Amino acid sequence: MDNDRVKRRKVESESDNGRTQLTAITALPDEENTGSVHLKDLIGSPHLEAMWQFNFMIDLAFVLDNIHKNAMSNIKCRFVMGDFSGEKIAAFRAQAKSLPIADNIEVGRAKLSNLFATHHTKMMVLFFNEDKGERSAQVVIHTANMIHHDWDNMTQGVWKSQKVKEKRKTNTEGSTSTFETDLVAYLSEYQLDTTSKLIKFLQRFDWSSETARVVGSVPGTHKDKKWGLTRVADLLDEHKEDHKSDYEGSESDTIVLQSSSIGSLGVTDKWITPQLVGALDGRSPRDRDGHGLPASQIVWPTVENVRRSFDGYDLGMSIHFKNESDTHRKQYAYMKERMNVWKADNKHRTRAMPHIKTYTRFTRAGKLRWVLLTSANISKYAWGSVSAAKEAKFSIPSWELGVLLFPQAVGKAVFDLKDSVIPYDWPLTNYSAKDEPWTKNADHLEKDTNGFPWVVTLDGKKKLMRSHEAL
């Protein structure tokens, strides 16, 4: 038995108690990966008979390499991706047709409204047929693209539902939980054959034990339906109302935003505080005033964080923030005072750069009032935005999905940080005067962990390089 398989099985045995987990880091020793999860732990069962994979990037060969050999010949594989031009989907389908299991693969194309919108949702829906013929289902909502890079040395988060069994024959009609209702509502928005089939499969199973709340973003201009900012605002407003006593002293709380991409948000703070932080305080994004909100902070890797990471500057390729133009510098000016370095010593991930996206609310004592694990970055495209016009239209360009977790669902008033999927340390560490936010679009000449600089400009041309020849 090879060392990788020994390591995986050891980690898997440690992680069975966790509903939210961080993915295992290849560069870490076993003891620092305790409680983590590998992709094979999720889709490597010999009893897996069907899976739906929703994602932004999917390497088909990588996914199939993580399927158990005993499941490979009969497994039904369904993929949902977004592609405005259709070229990537066509290439993916061509790749699938060349495989021995081509007849078992289907690909659905999520509709996108423009070239810059994405299908960014990251979800697996898995169906198992156990030894005694008992069938079970599991939903996995996570933050990783289905590519090797994302499951190697980057910090990622995973939420797993329980493996649920089929409904009793006497109770086959209707939803068994809010979770089921919400997930079916989200899937219905795709209007694809493959998602319609998935809904029918999901509705065969009993989701009554599941308490997580689904937070989705669906492209479009929305008036009545609640997606993105309006969805999370509604859920958090309801939570505050239902648990007023648990929110005593909440005026001294801090809402923390952490993602792997920060979009173009404008030269003045008209979105991040009044709309995003406002929604995370349970306020409608249409309020737009931003007054009386809790303090907010942002966790974002510095250049030094990335330089010293396990894979050096290469890990910065998946972390997106522009700080080169005058417009972007003005945006950074109003964000700078709440920027905090990536520091995750307690969970051994300071050198594993974050692709995870989390939003949470800290009490003064460092406890968590709720946790949101999601594919949605800090961007208008992910969460949606309210227009400045009088009619205040709320629109979302991209697809996203996350789960909002409340401690009351497990009999607690707050979560402990150490038991949550939140990876970074508390208290936070503010940027020092010399710290700069990581951007992959600028030169970084100090050599990284691997002994290379990061050079993007050469003879007036943009060119990504990581070799000594760049200097």
TrEMBL record:
Matching entries from Pfam families are given as:
Tyr-DNA_phospho
Q: Could you name the active-site residues? A: H120, H355
The answer to whether UniProt assigns keyword Nucleus to this entry is: yes
A cellular-component GO term for this protein: nucleus
Q: From the Swiss-Prot or TrEMBL record, what is one GO molecular function term?
A: double-stranded DNA binding
State the InterPro entries in the record.
Tdp1
Keywords of the record, alphabetical order, are: DNA damage, DNA repair, Exonuclease, Hydrolase, Nuclease, Nucleus
Q: Which residues cross the membrane?
A: none
Residues recorded as binding substrate, renumbered to this chain, are K122, K357
Name the predominant localization. nucleus
Please name the PANTHER family in this protein's record: TYROSYL-DNA PHOSPHODIESTERASE 1
Protein name, per record:
Tyrosyl-DNA phosphodiesterase I
Q: Which organism is it from?
A: Yarrowia lipolytica
Lineage runs: Eukaryota, Fungi, Dikarya, Ascomycota, Saccharomycotina
